[in-house]
Amino acid sequence: MAVNGESPGSGSPEAKLGMRVEDLWDVMEPQLSPTEKLNACFESIPVSAFPPAPSDTGIRETCGGRKLIEIKSDTSLAEAVQILAQHRILSAPVLDVDAPENASWIDRYIGIVEFAGIVVWILHQCEPPSPRSPAGRTALAAAVNGVTSELGFLGPESAAATSGNFFEDLTSSDLYKNTKVRDISGSFRWAPFLALQTSNSFLTMLLLLSKYKLKSIPVVDSGEGKIDNIITQSAVVHMLAECAGLQWFESWGNKKLSELGLPVMTPDRVIKVFEDEPVLQAFKLMRKKRIGGIPVVESGGSRAVGNISLRDVQFLLTAPEIYHDYRSITAKNFLTAVRSYLEKHHKVTPIRSGMIMCKRDNTMKELINLLDSEKIHRIYVVDDYGNLDGVITLRDIISKLVHEPHGYFGDFFDGVLPLPQNSRV
User: Fold this and answer.
1) 50 vs 4: which has the higher pLDDT
2) 34 in helix, strand or coil?
3) Domain-embedded: residue 345
4) Domain count for the chain
5) Beta carbons within 10 angstroms of residue 25's beta carbon
6) How far apart are CA 128 and CA 348, in angstroms?
7) What is the DSSP pairing of strand 196-197 with strand 216-221?
8) CATH no. for residue 283?
C-alpha cells in the first residue's frame, strides 16, 4: 500500500516490480526486522522479472527481437573504442573467437571490457618501467611504440608539460591500433564474465552489484545460452526511485544518511585531485586506487568544485578539440573544456551539470531521486561550507538495502570463468 499519500511510479515496469515486493512484504512474519523482510522478499523474486535493459547497456531492440552488442576478442583497441562510442555504451561482453560454435555461454565469453579500462590500460603502458627492471634498461623505458612516456612523470608541478601532442601520438600509435582486446584480459576494470541465470534471485543480483562490486551483470537464458538482459547498478537505483510511496521502500528510504551509516568513507580517506593538477593525474589516481571517480577541489583547500569519472577519459581520445585548445590540461581546464564541448554539441551528461552534492541529513529517498534524475554513479557529501565530508556510490546504497546471509553463495562461483591472476577490477 502507499503511505503518506504518495503513490508509486506511473505504472512503469519498475513500479510494478515494487508492488510485487510490497505484496510479499505484507505477508512476512511480523517478528522479522525490515532488513530481514527485504532479504526474504528479494530472495523470492527471480531476476527474470527485472525490466529489460535500456539501449545504453548494449542491448538493442530489432525487428527480430533483441540484439546484444558484442566485441570479438581479436578486435583492436582502436576498433573497440569506435564500437563503444558508435553505440554510445561504456562496456560490452567480449566474445571469444576461438570458442567452438556449440560452446556454452561460460566458454563463449571471456569477460567484459569497459571503454575507460581500454584507455587507462593504454596510458599505463606509457609509464616508464623501473630503472632497476630489465625493461627499464631498454629503449622501452623512453617510449612505447612511439608514445611518449611523460605520463609517468606527471605531478602537480608538471601540468604545462602535458600537451595535445601526447594524445595525438597515443591515438596514432601501433600500441593503440594493433593491440587486441584479448591482450588486455585481466587489466584495470576488466570484469570476468560472471552471469546470472534467469532463475537466480534478486537478492543474488543485488549482492553481486554491491558487496562484490560488479558494475553490471548479464542475465543468461539457460535454455538458449544467450544473454537475455544486462542489469546495472543504475537500473537498480532507477527501480528504487520508482518505488517511492510503497511501505517497504518508505521504511528504509525515509531514514537519514547518517542513520544508515553513510557516508562510509570518512573525509580524510576521500581520494581527490586539486584543480591545478594535470587531469591525467586524476586518471592515474583512479587506476592506482581502483576507484571510478574523483572529486576536484580548490587548490590548497577542501572545497569541491567538480568531479571527474573514469568514463570522462573518453574525451581525451574522441574530442580532439579539447586537448588541441589546452596545452596545459589541468583538472580545472579539463572540466571547462568538456563542458564547453558538450554545450557546443548539445549533449547532456553528468559532467556538464557540475558537482552533485548532498548533506548527511538528507534522506535515502532524496539521495536516490537525485542520483536517478542526474544519471550519476556517485554523490559527494559536503558540510555547510561546501567542504568534502565523504562520498556515496550506488554500491553503498544497495549495500544498505540488503545483507548477505552466512554461507549464502555456497558453490555459486564454481564453474564460472575465474578472475585472471593479474586482474585489478
Assistant:
1) 50
2) helix
3) yes
4) 1
5) 21
6) 37
7) parallel
8) 3.10.580.10
